[in-house]
Design a protein that fits this description.
- This protein is an alpha/beta fold.
- The chain is 44% helix and 21% strand.
- The chain is globular, with a radius of gyration of 32 Å.
Length: 699
């Protein structure tokens, strides 16, 4: 039930007191971030830490004795590390703030302004992630450009790049077609020279028409002219491209045969909806993706509209499926009449359409959308037995360099269209999407209602992930993982809803009990087949504070006819530390009846061993970030070795999650880990189906 440790925030702290550090960590965790932190008190400790571990952000009090914040920043810069340094003094001095920014600090916030400090940390981490993604993408882009260049050179199709009507590059096939020996001969030559005089008028009109905005996929049928003066029919297709970091147009030329004209017509049919002759959804999404790319690269903005026919299900029930198609065609025809040159209109579902306008301002788009709403409201669709007067709702979103991917942009427009018919409204209007439209309280209620309904209707799903014992114990072990099916058919991990403060404690307890009840029933069936199997069941902090849970657990195990050592209850380190007294009491109650307990995501507290001294736990699952760092940072092995040594010294059995490679197994084996878990062993499955007999107990 824990959030993926891939999202664990690594925080290095230099604070006045340990209490200050723990207070800050608690605030960050309460804001929804899984956090692993460490404190240091000297420049040497600081340098050792930033050399050994990947940190996401550093928070330092510039007024600490023996610490010079300028030297902290210099230490980071000397090692060429990208780690934001945030200063958190007791009181912000404007001169000190200016100095910190000049020397490379990320910002300064008074420590007492805790909410602002947390927001700054989140902002800096988000920007760090973006920078990291950009570096990876730059590498991939260079590799992709290299592959494209090789493909371009070897292509048999004549291809050229044109900027402002002049050639800037041509491949070998293009050079051979027009009789040139090298690209240098062609550079700076107008592409118009490759078009015969009889077609130049059409070509000029076309160039003037699009005025630098490439009509992707547009094909021209022209007459080409070769250097010897001979002519040939050709097909010229256009697409956007980048050459030498400049935006240009890619031309692809084909000698045109009579069959190619037919092929072009068939290609056009493939991207059309047969019933309305509008574009189909796949083609529209492709064009929308290009529009988003153009907005990012060229700052050429567009407007996206989602158009739905109000009450279409009622129309379909009233007039039947066949007759309702007439309503769809009538609305589609009205949409086509209102679209102008370069607009893209498509049918994207039974009763929904999309309309994209390049370069429109919000006010103009709203005016045109309202005009369409009024026009459709005036339609009279005469069917065999009655006349239908349809209305539509239009949701509008702007395509800018801040837009998400095509699917999400379309969802934004869809949400805006749904807002037209919210409450007492019945549609027949327009709504412009705004980020603040996502009302938090409404979303919280919706999420809670969906989860409650999933519990009530048994729509929750249990998965089982095996744990391999490296010490040769006979019993099989699985962790029970919870998923909730989403409306789009995907599955939501339990960590995405059960760890949220937006879900009530009462509902979390109900979910935990649902998991216990259904998991123990499945385990009982599995054990009756002769399997010696134990399962780890995760509990939320809300259940730790449930005084009646311990007694209820014994009743559930008795009903399932299970021995008490068949189940191990697991809590997160964060919940156990936050609710230390209830956690201690729960573990005592479980041990009194022979039920073992475990802690997960362990090692993220400043003094993690304090928990093992206060709460009697049998198993300790380290935070997955420790395992993952073994792949990228050899120094992290020392930290993990020390952590596991401390765990084993206290007589606890250790578990290493997120083991995803043979090299990770090899490293972890050396540290004496008892169990490993992860995709290297097996991912979560719908049943307890793993063949433990294949495992070699010797690793």
């Amino acid at each position: 039930m824990s959030v993926s440790t891939r999202d664990t925030l690594h925080l290095l702290l230099l604070t006045q007191t340990q209490n200050d550090a723990e207070q800050l960590i608690s605030l960050i965790r309460n804001s929804g971030s899984a956090t692993r932190a460490q404190t240091v008190t000297s420049h040497q400790q600081f340098e050792d830490s930033i050399r050994a571990t990947r940190w996401d952000v550093i928070v330092a009090d510039p007024e600490l004795d023996g610490i010079d914040f300028s030297e902290l920043i210099n230490q980071v810069n000397r090692l060429n590390l990208d780690i934001p340094v945030i200063l958190a003094p007791r009181k912000v001095d404007p001169m000190l703030h200016e100095t910190a920014l000049l020397r490379g600090g990320a910002g300064m916030v008074a420590f007492e302004e805790s909410n602002t400090l947390v927001l700054m940390i989140q902002r800096e981490v988000q920007q760090l992630r973006v920078r990291q993604d950009i570096r990876v993408l730059q590498i991939r882009l260079r590799e992709a450009e290299k592959r494209c260049r090789l493909l371009l050179e070897s292509s048999r199709d004549p291809i050229a790049y044109v900027h402002d009507g002049m050639h800037v590059y041509a491949n070998q096939a293009y050079l051979e077609m027009f009789g040139y020996d090298s690209v240098e001969e062609l550079e700076g030559m107008p592409v118009m020279d490759m078009v015969a005089a009889e077609s130049q008028g059409d070509f000029k009109a076309f160039l003037k028409e699009y005025q630098g905005v490439v009509p992707e996929g547009r094909v021209l049928h022209l007459t080409g002219e070769l250097p010897d003066g001979s002519h040939f029919p050709m097909q010229m297709s256009f697409s956007e491209a980048m050459y030498a970091d400049e935006t240009c147009t890619q031309l692809q030329i084909k000698r045109e045969e009579s069959t190619q004209v037919l092929e072009a017509e068939l290609d056009e049919l493939r991207i059309r909806d047969a019933s309305t002759n509008l574009y189909n959804k796949s083609y529209f999404v492709e064009r929308l993706t290009r529009a988003i790319d153009q907005a990012i690269i060229e700052k050429s903005y567009s407007t996206l509209m989602y158009i739905s026919i109000d009450g279409f299900d009622n129309i379909k029930r009233t007039v039947g499926i066949q007759q309702s198609d007439e309503v769809i065609r009538a609305v589609a025809a009205c949409l086509s009449e209102h679209a102008i040159q370069y607009d893209i209109t498509a049918r994207i579902s039974d009763e929904a359409f999309a309309w994209m306008m390049p370069g429109r301002q919000p006010e103009e788009a709203q005016q045109r959308a309202q005009t369409l709403v009024d026009a459709v409201a005036g339609l009279l669709v005469d069917l065999e037995q009655q006349t239908i007067r349809p209305t539509i709702s239009i949701g509008i979103t702007l395509i800018t360099d801040n837009s998400p991917a095509a699917a999400e942009a379309l969802q934004q427009a869809h949400n805006a269209a749904e807002a037209v018919s919210e409450g007492d409204r019945t549609g027949n209007g327009i709504h412009l999407y705004m980020p603040e439209d996502e009302h938090q309280e409404q979303e919280i209620r919706k999420a809670e209602d969906e989860l409650a309904d999933a519990v009530r209707t048994n729509r929750l799903k249990l998965l089982f992930q095996p744990l391999i014992n490296l010490r040769g114990e006979d019993a099989e072990h699985y962790e029970v993982l919870l998923r909730m099916p989403d409306r789009d058919g995907s599955e939501i991990s339990a960590g995405d809803f059960l760890l949220s403060a937006d879900i009530s404690d009462e509902l979390k307890r109900k979910v935990d009990r649902w998991v216990i009840l259904h998991a123990t029933k499945l385990l009982s069936v599995h054990q009756r087949k002769g399997n010696q199997t134990r399962i780890f069941i995760n509990l939320t902090g809300a259940s730790l504070r449930d005084d009646g849970l311990a007694g209820w657990v014994q009743v559930a195990l008795k009903a399932a006819e299970l021995k008490h050592d068949s189940v191990i209850f697991q809590m997160t380190e964060e919940d156990a530390v936050r609710h230390i007294a209830p956690a201690k009491r729960f573990c005592y109650q479980m041990h009194a009846v022979g039920i073992r307990t475990a802690v997960s995501r362990f090692g993220c507290e400043l003094s993690p061993m304090d928990l093992l001294e206060k709460v009697d736990l049998d198993y300790v699952k380290i935070d997955g970030s420790f395992t993952q760092e073994l792949e990228n940072n050899s120094q992290s092995g020392k930290v993990l070795k020390q952590l596991l040594g401390d765990i084993h010294e206290r007589g606890k059995k250790s578990i290493a999650p997120f083991v995803e490679s043979a090299s990770a197994v090899s490293s972890i084996w050396q540290y004496g880990v008892h169990f490993i878990q992860g995709y290297y062993v097996q991912g979560p499955q719908a049943g307890m189906t793993y063949d433990f007999s294949d495992e070699d107990a010797g690793g």
